[in-house]
Write a structure and sequence with these properties.
Pnp Oxidase, Chain A; Immunoglobulin-like; 3 helices
């Protein structure tokens, strides 16, 4: 961006990985990250690394020579998605049921029943402390003073529906899958998804159906898509009471394929565990440590020997002429960069932005950076 122009927005960023097998820019959807996070600013800088040859007969060097260049980009995110951090560290975010730990300051109710509801169905032992760090004892029946009992919750059941391919496609063609789910705004009226089917075998047909459902953002956002061999299983991502759902399949140009009737699993809402205390402890503050079952846990792991992928960094931003008569759409593409420096995943009470820093490495071709702009309406 020329200094003759003023930036009027910080810009948006797109990261695209390079295919480790071919070395070319990847075309796989999972290798592109369009950042929707709020961005406060983007800095770009070029450093010239040089050395000098001394001249003993002068106060100036006899020559200054380049040893290399460092081209750096810093992106100051005021919000940062976990998926972006995982993407740039060569790992992936996974979602599924799992266990989560909680340490909470609670107060025993002053009125009967003297129960404290937890965040979910507990797993393993609980620790309950008073304000002096004295332990409450676990009592399996009616608790006395400085005791508590646990009413176990229910983990819940995720509603599911399953079909199987019972007859293979004999002539390749298309079919329409319609998925309906009362709890999804995108699926409540039924969403039709077209699938291309080949005349190979039942397992291949089922895999083709699973793949197209996985690629649909509305269906895959609400359901986990699974199944083996000829099965297609759609499982609601959360455990909740049974709702109205349907899995319909109609033929278009494909011939021969048959999907059997839908087999359903009813949904059961999760019920959290409860702690019960004695009247003698009513109104007392307590500290509770426990692990509970969660129906959807988002996680990503940082591997000891993990590598950070090379990425193309695209910056899309707007500028305005100093006299405010023209506005421009700007595109900057840094051909190949890697994440570097400190990643501050702060846990301060007051929010602080996170800056991600990148350094350019040897590009494909000869261009490290490409800058373009065009005039757009004010």
């Amino acid at each position: 961006m020329s200094k003759d122009y003023l930036a009027i927005n910080a810009g948006r960023v797109v990261f695209t990985k390079f295919d480790p097998d071919t070395g070319a820019l990847s075309i796989m959807p999972e290798d592109k990250r369009i950042c929707t996070e709020a961005c406060d600013g983007i800095t770009r800088s070029k450093t010239l690394n040089t050395y000098e040859i001394a001249d003993g007969n002068s106060n100036y060097p006899a020559g200054i020579y380049d040893t290399g260049m460092t081209y750096a980009v810093g992106i100051n995110f005021t919000t940062l998605n976990t998926a972006t951090l995982a993407f740039l560290q060569g790992t992936a975010v996974t979602k599924g049921s799992g266990n989560i730990k909680e340490v909470a300051s609670l107060v025993i109710p002053t009125e009967s029943p003297y129960e404290v509801e937890l965040l979910g169905n507990t797993i393993g032992d609980l620790v309950v402390l008073d304000t002096e760090s004295n332990l409450f004892a676990l009592e399996v029946s009616a608790p006395s003073a400085k005791q508590f009992s646990v009413a176990s919750g229910v983990a819940g059941t995720k509603q599911a529906m399953e079909k199987s391919v019972t007859a293979v496609a004999t002539t390749a063609g298309t079919a329409t899958i319609t998925i309906t789910a009362a709890g999804s705004a995108a699926l409540v009226g039924g969403k039709a998804v077209e699938v291309n089917l080949t005349d190979v075998d039942a397992d291949t047909n089922a895999d083709e159906i699973r793949s197209v459902l996985l690629s649909d953002p509305d269906v895959s956002a609400y359901f986990d898509i699974g199944g083996v061999a000829a099965e297609i299983v759609l499982t609601r991502k959360i455990a909740a009471i049974t709702e109205s759902e349907a899995f319909d399949f109609t033929l278009d140009t494909v011939i021969g394929i048959v999907l059997g009737s839908t087999t359903s699993v009813a949904g059961v809402a999760a019920i959290p565990s409860k702690l019960t205390f004695n009247l003698a402890d009513a109104g007392s503050p307590i500290m509770v440590e426990y692990t509970f079952e969660a129906t959807e846990v988002e996680s990503y792991d940082i591997n000891e020997n993990g590598t950070h992928p090379a990425v193309q960094v695209e910056i899309i931003h707007e500028t305005m002429s100093v006299d405010k008569t023209k506005k421009y759409k700007n595109n900057s593409i840094v051909n190949k960069m890697t994440l570097t420096g400190n990643i501050d995943e702060n846990l301060a009470r007051q929010h602080a932005p996170t800056t991600l820093n990148f350094n350019a490495i040897k590009p494909l071709g000869s261009n490290v950076v490409r800058n373009k702009k065009t005039s757009i309406p004010l």
